Amino acid sequence: MKFYSFEELDKDSRIIAKQVRDSFAPDAIVAIARGGLTFGHALANALDMRTIFSINSIHYADTQKLDTIDVFNIPDLELYKRILLVDDIIDSGDSMVEIKRVLEEKYPKAEIKTAVIFYKSKALIQPDFKIKETDEWINFFWENYKIEE
Predict the structure, then answer these.
(1) What is the DSSP code (8-state) at residue 87?
(2) Interhelix angle 6-23/35-46, nearest 10 degrees
(3) How large is the C-alpha radius of gyration of the chain?
(4) 44: left (phi > 0), else alpha (psi -120 to 50), else beta?
(5) Disulfide check for 125: which of 71, 77, 89, 93 has CB 3.0–4.6 Å away?
(6) pTM of the model
(7) What's the gap between Cα 12 and its chain centre?
(8) Each residue's pLDDT tens digit in the chain (149 positions)?
(9) Which of 8, 46, 15, 30 is nearest to 102 (CA)?
(10) Contacts for 48-51: CB closer than 8 Å, 24+ residues apart
């Protein structure tokens, strides 16, 4: 298991933000809750964007992969033509494929690209913007904020 720190997020977000700005220039960011929220916030700050939305997907219970993918809380993106869909990691790719499919079906005129920090080369989908390939389970610093019993 690899620990991913705030310092790494700070550095990686700036690198990906430059890639995104130089080749795509989105007019909206959609962060996948929960994992993509911190990264999405960092990208929105780096790109000086206020048009950031969230979407929910449940495909894991802790580290246990579920048999279903539930996509809900779909934002109104009718006014946006270039949407950046953001998550912390593409593991199997199941969730990203399904969320992207749902958004493309609902907003067929929009161009949707994906950005993640980590990706696995064997995933069903490869992100448009990425920084680190991995085969490990990643422990992101934002996952450590839990109430002690």
Answers:
(1) E
(2) 60
(3) 15
(4) alpha
(5) 93
(6) 0.91
(7) 13
(8) 899 999 999 999 999 999 999 999 999 999 999 889 999 999 999 999 999 999 998 766 666 666 778 899 999 999 999 999 999 999 999 999 999 999 999 999 999 999 999 999 999 999 999 999 999 999 999 988 777 77
(9) 30
(10) 51/27, 51/80
Does CATH number 3.40.50.2020 belong to domain 2-143?
Answer: yes
Could you tell me which residues come within 8 angstroms of residue 104 by beta carbon, excluding any fewer than 6 positions away?
110, 112
Strands 64-72 and 52-61: antiparallel
In sequence order, the 6+-apart residues with CB closer than 8 A to the CB of 62 are: none
Q: Is the dihedral of CA 125, 80, 76, 41 positive or negative?
A: positive
CA 119 to chain centre: 11
52 and 85 Cβ atoms separated by less than 8 Å: no
Task: Return the sign of the alpha-carbon dihedral for residues 107, 80, 41, 75.
Answer: negative
Residues in the chain, total:
149
Distant-in-sequence, close-in-space partners of 63: CB < 8 Å, separation ≥ 6: 137
